[in-house]
Design goal:
The structure holds 2 protein chains of 2 kinds. By secondary structure, chain A is mainly α. Chain A is built from 7 helices and no strands. Chain A has 2 domains: 30 residues; 88 residues, no CATH class. In chain A, helix 3 runs antiparallel to helix 4 and helix 4 packs across helix 5. Chain B is mainly alpha-helical. Chain B is built from 3 helices and no strands. The N and C termini of chain B lie far apart (47 Å). The chains are: A mainly alpha, B mainly alpha. The interface between A and B is medium-sized, with 31 and 26 residues.
Chain lengths: 136, 76
């Protein structure tokens, strides 16, 4: 059987969307802190340092339950990057509507700011002694 | 440049945040290189950097999935 490329693209997007919806439901219902099934950060486990992504599962759980303040406390990068990632995925799906945006959001300056934010957050969350660093 | 190569930036950020591995940051730095080379109109260099960025994204994603899989089966 042969399929057209637009059919394959539609099928791919449907499967990905269904998987994302199932994952979002799991993350909304179950709290990663109270459930052993959620994977723990390997980097944290073996080095004792938090990585920039540590707490992203807890942050997603908090966000899905509309608890933005505690999501920021778990991992501010997830909250910060959701609008950015949404915009950049939209520019990839519908490039015809976002011709000016595409250049801007992937410009060298934008990427340098992103690198700065991630590295800065990685450093700060590991040297500060408040409740950021005390999470397992 | 008429047809600039992919920077892999979105994918790099996603693997950095979701795979718990610092390799994602290397991928973002590669994305920066791609973007700078596109801005400098160096098509060959940009394509090469784009392939590098793709490799780092794939390595990070595969390692993340494998390690999470091992975790779920209780090996870790």
């Amino acid at each position: 059987m042969t399929f057209t490329t637009s059919f394959k693209r539609g099928l791919f997007l449907t499967v990905v969307s269904i998987c994302i919806i199932i994952l979002l439901l799991i993350y909304k219902i179950y709290n990663p802190l109270e459930n052993d099934l959620f994977p723990k950060c390997i980097f944290y486990k073996y080095t004792g340092f938090l990585c920039p992504g540590c707490g992203s599962q807890r942050a997603i759980h908090c966000l899905l339950n509309f608890n933005i303040l505690s999501a920021i406390k778990q991992n501010i990068l997830v909250v910060l990057f959701i609008p950015y990632l949404t915009l950049s995925i939209l520019t990839k799906l519908y490039p015809q509507f976002f011709t000016t945006w595409k250049r801007k959001i992937e410009s060298p300056l934008a990427i340098k700011i992103i690198i700065g934010i991630i590295l800065g957050y990685w450093l700060i969350r590991n040297i500060s002694l408040d409740n950021y660093a005390s999470f397992p | 440049m008429t047809n600039p190569p992919k920077t892999w930036l979105t994918e790099s950020i996603l693997v950095t945040l979701l795979c718990c591995l610092p390799i994602g940051i290397v991928a973002i730095i590669q994305a920066n290189k791609v973007s700078s080379l596109i801005a400098a109109d160096d098509e060959k260099g940009a394509i090469k950097a784009s392939e590098n960025a793709k490799m780092y994204v794939i390595v990070s994603a595969v390692l993340g999935v494998v390690l999470i899989g091992l975790f779920l089966f209780g090996t870790f």
